[in-house]
């Protein structure tokens, strides 16, 4: 059986041959791939959002497609349609780019709400309906959507229902000076570096195999209560109009199990939950009008919640993390 830790280390090392300083983003993409999740990747232009998604797809051996979202893209351009063939006098199904293991929806907020909603069925049900016919999508299936937080003219904000279907929202930051210098040197030595420069170091079957391992990761009751306490706090915070949904709670648990697995553990610790608190929840919160007018961000609310909800065992150290696990080990199940 494929070990999630080995899979992650292999993917990370291969992607690092092109990009620098994207370890957290590769970790997030791996977590989503191991838990049937989707990723919303946000960053200013030029921080290699699309390149990262393509590198991940190639390294993991997944068949991938890319759709450049613009206001004139129609739902049929994404899902497919029936095309009339005059020689045969029949309609033939023409599958859209959504029929791939990994679909990159570039600048998703530039598509109209009608086109955005065409992805809802695919994201949740792993299927699409074309002309009354329901078709299953390949397995594994994963959507990586990018968006630009600036240049908001001519864009359409993702509705809450669609944001909730993204397991993680990851932010691609600008590199620091040291990373920028290393990047300059790397592309000065090899200007032709691109996703085609790396090898396929995994396969879709290995990814599915590693998924099975993730499902066996143990989660102590105290850690589950910690997740529920955080979710409850999002619903009770005065700056939040609508807090995290049950779908978010399940995504939280699955992501924590995958993070534990790729770090070589067969049990979840509170620090797994802490590390994923913002990526899982930041795009799901609907802030109150007063919070929006007061320049309170979702990240601010989550920082307040993280400091206000006590984890199992209090402040976590390696010793207390082990103690939490030992309090309910897999051997005791």
Order of helices and strands: HHEHEHEEEHHEEEHEHHHEHHEHHH
CATH superfamily of the largest domain: P-loop containing nucleotide triphosphate hydrolases
Q: Any idea what the CATH architecture of the largest domain is? A: 3-Layer(aba) Sandwich
Largest sheet: 5 strands, parallel
**CATH fold descriptor of the largest domain:** Rossmann fold
Strand order of the largest sheet: 2-5-8-1-9
In short:
The protein contains 15 helices and 11 strands. With 333 residues, the chain is an alpha/beta fold. The strands form 4 sheets. Strands 2-5-8-1-9 form a 5-stranded parallel sheet. Strands 3-4 form a two-stranded antiparallel ribbon. The protein has a two-stranded antiparallel ribbon with strand order 6-7.
Task: Please give a structural write-up.
With 333 residues, this protein is of the alpha/beta class. The chain folds into two domains: 4-208, P-loop containing nucleotide triphosphate hydrolases (Rossmann fold); 218-332, Magnesium chelatase subunit I, C-Terminal domain (Helicase, Ruva Protein, domain 3, Orthogonal Bundle). It has 15 helices and eleven strands. The chain has helices at residues 4-15, 23-33, 49-59, 75-79, 113-117, 120-125, 160-163, 177-189, 204-215, 221-236, 246-262, 270-281, 289-293, 298-308, 318-326; strands spanning 39-42, 64-68, 80-85, 90-95, 102-106, 127-130, 133-136, 142-147, 168-171, 240-242, 286-287. The chain has a five-stranded parallel β-sheet with strand order 2-5-8-1-9. Strands 3-4 form a two-stranded antiparallel ribbon. A hairpin with a 4-residue loop joins strand 3 (80-85) and strand 4 (90-95). The two termini are 22 Å apart. The model is unreliable at 316-320 and 329-333 (pLDDT under 50).
